[in-house]
Amino acid sequence: MRILLTNDDGVRAYGMTVMRRIAEAISDDVWVVAPETEQSAASRGVSLHNPVRAKKLEDRVYSVSGTPTDSVIVGIHDILNGKKPDLILSGVNRGQNLAEDVTFSGTIAGALQGMQMGVPSIALSLARGFQGASSLPWETADAHGPKLIQDLLEAGWPADTILSVNFPDTPPDGVKGVQFTRQGQRDYEMQGIDKRDHPRGGSYFWLTYGAGLSNPPQGTDLRAIYDGFISVTPLHTDLTHLETLRRLQESFKTD
Questions:
Q1: How many Cα neighbours within 13 Å face the side chain of 207?
Q2: Is residue 232 in some structural domain?
């Protein structure tokens, strides 16, 4: 099995080291094509107005001067010479990708691009800030990742869907199991901006986040992470709100 890895934290991020260990426990044909710098929150950005360069760092490991989406495109079309991988794994992200946040996640975007190009794809993220841990328990993804991916591959999923995996920020033996979930509603929001004076005149801004926790309902990705479970959420790119579509069609129906 040929596996292509990407991420949005950058090719040298520790999460990529973890991702490589997980992939290499499954296959001996693992390739890395990932952004040379952090691209968190890049969503599905594509570098249409700037050239994209790829650099070989070591055998089967390449950096790309662009986004996760760029990396998957360059990886499949050029670095792998058009020979599609059997699986794309994006991550392991430093921090959760849950609820509405999946829409601007570069980790999710890497998997979505793989799906769009006809490759089964999984995004993997490690939650933080839920269980009060002082550091990220990367060993949890290490311990549970290989078997979970193999089980998911055996089960299968539709060609127009990716799987978003979030590991809870607990030690490996603290994981209570796996739950298959739907997107929840984010329990923190972009609260505002930190406006600062620029030394050469004018102002600049840092976007800021709050960190309040809520009580998400059962069955959501958030609830699973709160409760110490691995969350697996099937996602796709069809954002149509079907209930509203049906209502509008009915309301504007003509004889």
A1: 3
A2: yes
